[in-house]
Amino acid sequence: MSESTEEQQKALPGRLAQVIATRGGLAPPEAPFVIEHREALIYMLCEAAELEHGIMCQYLFAAFSIKQDAAEGLTDDQVATVRRWRERISHVAAQEMLHLALVQNLLSAIGAAPHLSRPNFPQPASHYPAGVNLTLLPFGEAALRHFMFLERPEGMALHDAPGLAAYGRAAPAMQPGDIAPHGQDFATVGHLYRSIEAGIEHLAQKYGERGLFVGPPRAQATQQYFQWPELVAVTDVTSARRAIGEILEQGEGPRGDWRNAHFGQFVEILDEFEQLREADRGFDPVRPVVPLNVRPSERDPNVPLVTDQLAQRVMDLFNVCYEVLLLMLQRFFAHAEETDAQLKVLADGTYALMVQAIKPLGDVITRLPAGPEYPGQTAGPSFELFYESDYVLPHREAAWVLLAERIEAAATFCQPSGTDSTPEVTQTLAEVRDALAGIASSLQAHLPSRPAPAPAAAVEEVPVMLDRARAFYRTCAGGSLDDVVSSAFADVARSAYLLLEHTTRSENSAAETVTVARITDSVLRPLADRLGRDRPADTSGVPEPRVPDGTVPELARRAAMDATQLRVQLADTAPPELLEAVAALQRVAVDLAPDAAGQAAELAETQRGLRPRIVVAENGPYLVTNAAAVRSYLGERLRVPPQLALCRCGESGDKPFCDGSHARTGFSGAKDPKRVPDQRDTYPGTQVTVFDNRGICQHSGFCTDRLPAVFRSDAEPFVAPSGGRMDEIVRAVRDCPSGALSLAFDGTEARDLAEWHGIREPAIEVSLDGPYRVTGAIPLADAAGKDVPPALGSSREHYALCRCGHSQNKPFCSGMHWYVQFRDPAGTADPTLFEWAGGLPALTRMTRMLYESLLPADDLLAPAFADLPPGAPQREAAWLAEAFGGPQRRGVTSLAGRDLTPALRARWASLALRAADQAGLPDDPAFRAALAGFLEWASRVPADSPGHVPSWDWSPGGRPDTSGEQAGASEPSVKLPGPDETVGFEAHIRPLFRERDRTSMRFAFDLWSRDDVQQHATEILRQLRNGTMPCDGAWPQSWTEVFRRWAESGFQP
């Protein structure tokens, strides 16, 4: 069909549309039935929920049954047409899911639990009133006429498809004195909703709006969680009318205008279907799908069952994924303790299940044979429910554990077992398995650590990864490679796949598993994403490549060098997918090389001409090119290749490096609309003006711990520039890792001073439990190669990048790692003093604090250290590090050669301990006993032994006990007051605010101070209701209600 012909057909209505349009209008609408009390309204809303739910399943079944390509006997023009039909029906099904969510909002608003259960198909003919029958039908005339009948506007005389008329059902009268609801007959779906709307208006007059809408506003699904602009939060009669209006307008259209509604879309598809069938009697756009169940029906033993084993297995998996989707929705609408971030995880999980599991499984099922009893026919998704959707506990942690376990079980079930699979099914199951693993991981990230089950043998995991790798490789090799760059990408994929095949033949199972995982998830996956994005791959004819001769290290070197040379050729235009693949191949080559340092040097020389740069992949890792140094939080230089992919989602099992987890978990790199505003504040002082942008602060505490009289977390204004020495303020500003601080003298900003005069090398520090701290002015670009805009007034020389995956200001850190208790790397069971202190960076902060701040201000010690040479604090920190078990760095103490009196030695040791406090070193008794002992010893170092470095260990008191850290991390339980109990601040309000909440808000007020909380109670209550406080998620509604009671009862102590 030509484009002009198709446009004419769209412009001119079909015959059926013309007939409907010329029937002379609509009959008067049915009179709404009476709803006298809340229970009757809940009953009818549950009926509406079941209808939307069942209708959605019908539409999905029909969409899955439509053929998709020319291999199924269609011409190219017909393929384009049927794909358009499938997209439109799928879109209508998505809108039915929106309607289901709106009904749940209505239920929640009036105080009812969500309702997501329904009868299994085929549904009893008498379950719904006359005029409503729900059944699974493959696409075709009967299905389309049935859909039109269900979506018909009120007052339109239209008959259902032959054989689908519902049985009549008597409707008991609704008496005003009834206490239990009765079923009600409704002629159309529109009639049901208009009766519900009338019932809401009647009950609002009866009880008052506040008396009717008693549900918590936070239980509403909104666009904040789901990507539907039409998703209305229901809190009163007006918003309830809007929600019902959205449902009716999308389904049957505004009264008299049905063409763009669901009804009109089905009319148009049926018209077009009949025209094509008349033009070509052989036109058959439908797979031979027969509706079958997997399990025998308890209600009807005559329901036909699928008998093909592979179809049974895939249908079971489909139904389990569908069940989990409902469980997650049930949890979302009935949540009691979830934060905003956790609700977003549930919402994102339901979307991922629909798109990454249910959709591909539904499509593959309709290609599978139904069994020998059904010759020539295929199976279809049955949407069977094995459990009620509300069986999970109301307690969040228990509910989430059950959800994660169910999803993990489904992921395990994706592995073919004892059935003759096909390449298409194997590939689909592998992709679904990855998606399910990612969803489970996103849930587990919000659960406390639990003992991990014993892992399966590594060698058993390799075949599963190989199946996934083959699917990725076929996508890379099967695309239409119509340009040189795409062809080069495919060559990289081929080299990587050959390396993978060769690796599996080695005898080193541990190295095999690591290499196969890296190549599969970090090389072939991103390349397949890139090559398969715009050109669907034909994988049917892709042969297995011949594995070349050579050792695994030789093949790894060859693949890495080829990929690196392509990366150099493309320079700054290299797409993120190639950068991710090159980074993984370089790591594989370096790890497998007999001379790892030599291999890394060869790669570095190959890409030496590339400028240092960090590219932020969209919803993916940080892609680092030629950083001069990458250091651990201990200050140790990591041996890494020149191209790196650093984890950004926080889920990698190979931190700080990316392992592809972001693709499995559905990580989003979007900023949170509720983040701290990007605003630069100015604090003028007598000698210096300080600038600060709270929106970019990473909350390291370097400024507030060093100069609490200047940077005040518990007072306003936050910065008091006249509260400290100017030189100390300058050092604090320069040491700010996020770049939020700057300063000016006499009205001129000293940007060059704040940015270290550009002398620092391009480097990245992987901080402990926190962000990547970038220094040396490494350019930061987005996935398109454009510069990432910095925050207002922030530094380009140094900045902090989120690596926990939860920042509200991605890609920059916003301090959320502290709230979500991000932990990496894990502590060792037997830490040295060096590790416990925080490594060289922490010890350097301490010695700089001592020699740059405390000693110059001390009248007794300042003269004794007046001749201190430049770099002395760094050299003493290195000396301390080696003494405490760190690397040898040729450090030297500044005390050497100084003949101090006993009083000055004691004074020095006392100031050193104070410097440890201000630098944030651990303050537990075990560490401080060892540190104090060392400082006492150091103060007595003989003047003639400047190079002597002792080997210092823990004191006789032993190491600190870390066994209770995890338990201590959990928040204490909160006891809420009873309904008749007086709410007091000390007994009930203060315990609601955690220490972390207090710390995060001390720049404004003290949440543990009754006077402060009383003074700011109105604003606090507003933010609690909006879910913007505390910043890691909203309180449960019950907590907010307690705060409101306290505020309205006179702020009792």
Please summarize what this structure is.
The chain has 1053 residues and is mainly alpha-helical. Helix 4 runs antiparallel to helix 9 (262-279) and helix 14 (458-478) runs parallel beside helix 16 (509-532). The longest helix has 34 residues, at 76-109.
Indicate the CATH architecture of the largest domain.
Answer: Up-down Bundle
Query: What topology, given as strand order, has the largest sheet?
Result: 4-2-1-11
What spatial form do the alpha-carbon principal axes imply?
Answer: globular
**What gyration radius follows from the Cα positions, in whole Å?**
33 Å
Q: Provide the structure class.
A: mainly alpha
Written account of the structure:
- The protein contains 35 helices and 12 strands.
- It is mainly alpha-helical and 1053 residues long.
- The strands form 3 sheets. Strands 4-2-1-11 form a 4-stranded mixed sheet, with helices on one face. The chain has a 4-stranded mixed sheet with strand order 3-9-10-12, with no helix packed on it.
- The longest helix is centred in the first third of the chain and has 34 residues, at 76-109.
- The N and C termini lie far apart (79 Å).
Question: Which helices and strands appear, and what pairs or packs with what?
Answer:
Blueprint: H1 3-11, H2 15-21, H3 38-64, H4 76-109, H5 141-151, H6 189-207, H7 209-212, H8 237-251, H9 262-279, H10 309-333, H11 340-365, H12 396-413, H13 423-444, H14 458-478, H15 484-503, H16 509-532, H17 552-570, H18 576-592, H19 596-606, E1 613-616, E2 622-625, E3 629-632, E4 643-646, H20 661-665, E5 680-683, E6 689-693, H21 702-706, H22 726-734, E7 741-745, E8 748-749, H23 751-754, E9 763-766, E10 772-775, E11 780-781, E12 799-801, H24 816-819, H25 833-837, H26 839-854, H27 872-883, H28 902-918, H29 925-938, H30 965-969, H31 985-989, H32 995-1001, H33 1010-1015, H34 1017-1026, H35 1037-1048
Parallel strand pairs: 1-11, 3-9
Antiparallel strand pairs: 1-2, 2-4, 5-6, 6-7, 7-8, 9-10, 10-12
Helix pairs in contact: 3-4, 3-6, 4-8, 4-9, 5-9, 6-8, 10-11, 10-12, 11-13, 12-13, 13-14, 14-15, 14-16, 15-16, 15-17, 16-18, 17-18, 18-19, 26-27, 26-28, 28-29, 34-35
